[in-house]
Amino acid sequence: MDRIFIDTNILVYTIDSYNKEKQKKARKLLKELIAKESPVISTQVLQEFYNAVTMKLKADKLTAKSMLHGFSSLDTVQVNLHIIEQAVDINILSGMSFWDSLIIAAAEAANCSILLSEDLADGQIVRGIEIKNPFK
Length: 136
Description:
The chain has helices at about 10-15, 20-35, 45-55, 60-70, 80-95, 100-110; strands at about 5, 40, 75, 115, 125, 130. The protein is of the alpha/beta class. The protein has one domain (about 5-130): Rossmann fold, CATH 3.40.50. Strands 3-2-1-4-6-5 form a six-stranded mixed β-sheet. Helix 3 runs antiparallel to helix 4. The mean pLDDT is about 95.
């Protein structure tokens, strides 16, 4: 079974009522991945999720905290020094932003073969991880 890393934007779309089509697709995707026990996130994704839903979507902060707790069933990679160093290497070699590199490094640490993200280049393979945009 492929382990699949979920980028922040996918989680944000699950509650983004401004884009109903992406919201529906993101919810269906997350439900399917949870049923297969394959989704992986990182502490960075949780931090970015909280920031995005409270700042951009104006969600109530206690509600956002409750939503974070709802992700506790997902396998979560703790960002550590080794992962940060790997992200720096990815950043240097690929020219990607540090934050995108950190997502890829976390996915690699979790042995994921796929990274679902709307923000990265669909079809690109970095360190053996295929990036897929589920909204294409």
